């Protein structure tokens, strides 16, 4: 396979600045490979652009970002030459779309197009996503402070904020265990490259699992291999449950209630209402044949699903902005399933639920 060149390396033979070469890759003007958060050009592409610029012709006259020529791949696939299917990566992607709505930068033009249509259908979406940034930090911080073992369901693309495993390491030291779960290939590749591998190099107990939340039996079995489920654990789902149908959500909540120990906590963020946005997103996915959807729910409906499976003590954490609209759903709930409340505590339960230990000079999680 051709060598991979960074925009800085490609800029010299093209006679342009690094910023221009990087912008061409980011905007899809020149076909580039998207690996994690970085872009790379193939050597053949660089040579072709250099020749066409010398002759004054357009390098790729029929190329545009929506054509799916710019592909996402793992680093191993990029080096081995095993390219992922171009048509698949031309589809709207849930992780990239919500990264854009969350004011991130890991999105493509087709994702931004859908996000804009969602915002037009639900004018309050932009404001709710802005409030969600604060709500998410409150939920993640509360779960990481309460439990040394944390499960992040639907972790999505890494963002420029302190990850749960980093918070756990500060609070719990070597006792911290974190499991990230997703089944989106782009998200898995990015999380393994940016979170799992660096964390394991430093000695952190971090795992990334490729699992579909619509099949909770497989999820529960896999979690037992990496976590001690005989003691309470913390569960996170930030803008994840929105993508499950009602019966799928009920199955997931019930399956975890049956496997986790009483006292386990679940931190949740979820869009509140936004029926128009959900219809736009689901309709777009259906047109493309993508296996994804967005389900609109209200706080009371979501709480009833959890309470029916033994999750109680629902505590809302949604911050309200002065003059703002309806905030997103942000809450903490605790597993108090009656038929499991009589289970005796494990002798080493304190190892996972005691007060966090902080290194000397540490002030906690930002």
Explain what the structure shows.
With 366 residues, the chain is an alpha/beta fold. The protein has 2 domains: 4-90; 125-276 and 290-353, Rossmann fold (3-Layer(aba) Sandwich), CATH 3.40.50. The chain contains 15 helices and 11 strands. The chain has helices at 7-14, 18-27, 43-55, 75-80, 86-89, 94-101, 109-121, 125-146, 164-172, 185-201, 216-226, 246-259, 275-288, 299-307, 350-353, and strands at residues 4-5, 33-35, 38-42, 71-72, 149-153, 177-182, 205-210, 234-238, 265-270, 311-316, 329-335. Strands 7-6-5-8-9-11-10 form a 7-stranded mixed sheet, with helices on both faces. Strands 1-3-2-4 form a 4-stranded mixed sheet. Strand 6, helix 10 and strand 7 form a beta-alpha-beta unit. The longest helix is centred in the middle third of the chain and has 22 residues, at 125-146. The protein is globular. The chain starts with a strand and ends in a 13-residue tail after the last helix. Pfam families: HTH_17 (PF12728), Methyltransf_19 (PF04672).
SSE arrangement:
Layout: E1 4-5, H1 7-14, H2 18-27, E2 33-35, E3 38-42, H3 43-55, E4 71-72, H4 75-80, H5 86-89, H6 94-101, H7 109-121, H8 125-146, E5 149-153, H9 164-172, E6 177-182, H10 185-201, E7 205-210, H11 216-226, E8 234-238, H12 246-259, E9 265-270, H13 275-288, H14 299-307, E10 311-316, E11 329-335, H15 350-353
Parallel strand pairs: 2-4, 5-6, 5-8, 6-7, 8-9
Antiparallel strand pairs: 1-3, 2-3, 9-11, 10-11
Helix pairs in contact: 1-2, 6-7, 7-13, 8-9
């Amino acid at each position: 396979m051709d060598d991979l060149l960074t925009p800085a390396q490609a800029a010299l033979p093209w006679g342009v600045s690094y910023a221009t070469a990087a912008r061409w890759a980011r905007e899809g003007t020149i076909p580039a490979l998207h690996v994690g958060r970085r872009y790379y050009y193939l050597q053949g592409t660089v040579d072709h652009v250099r020749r066409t610029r010398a002759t004054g012709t357009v390098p790729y006259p029929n190329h545009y970002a929506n054509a799916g020529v710019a592909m996402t791949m793992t680093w191993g696939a990029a080096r081995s030459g095993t390219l992922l299917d171009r048509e698949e990566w031309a589809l709207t992607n849930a992780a990239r779309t919500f990264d854009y709505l969350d004011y991130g930068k890991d999105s493509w033009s087709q994702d931004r197009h859908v996000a804009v249509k969602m915002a037009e259908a639900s004018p309050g979406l932009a404001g709710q996503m802005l409030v969600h940034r604060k709500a998410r930090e409150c939920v993640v911080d509360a779960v990481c402070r309460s439990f040394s073992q944390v499960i992040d369901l639907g972790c999505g693309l890494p963002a420029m904020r302190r990850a749960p495993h980093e918070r756990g390491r500060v609070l719990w030291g070597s006792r911290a265990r974190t499991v990230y779960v997703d089944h989106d290939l782009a998200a898995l590749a990015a999380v393994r490259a940016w979170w799992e591998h660096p964390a394991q190099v430093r000695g952190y107990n971090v795992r990334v699992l490729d699992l579909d939340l619509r099949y909770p039996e497989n999820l529960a079995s896999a979690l037992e291999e990496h976590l001690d489920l005989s003691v309470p654990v913390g569960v996170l789902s930030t803008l994840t449950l929105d993508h499950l149908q009602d019966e799928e959500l009920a199955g997931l909540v019930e399956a975890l209630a049956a496997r986790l120990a009483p006292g386990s906590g679940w931190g949740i963020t979820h869009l509140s209402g936004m029926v128009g946005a959900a219809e736009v997103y689901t309709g777009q996915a259906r047109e493309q044949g993508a296996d994804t959807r967005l389900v609109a729910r209200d706080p009371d409906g979501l709480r009833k699903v959890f309470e029916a499976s033994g999750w109680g003590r629902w505590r809302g954490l949604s911050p309200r902005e002065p003059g703002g609209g309806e905030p997103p759903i942000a809450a903490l709930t605790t597993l108090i399933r009656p038929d499991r409340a009589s289970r005796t505590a494990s002798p080493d339960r304190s190892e996972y639920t005691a007060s966090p230990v902080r290194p000397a000079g540490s002030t906690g999680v930002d």
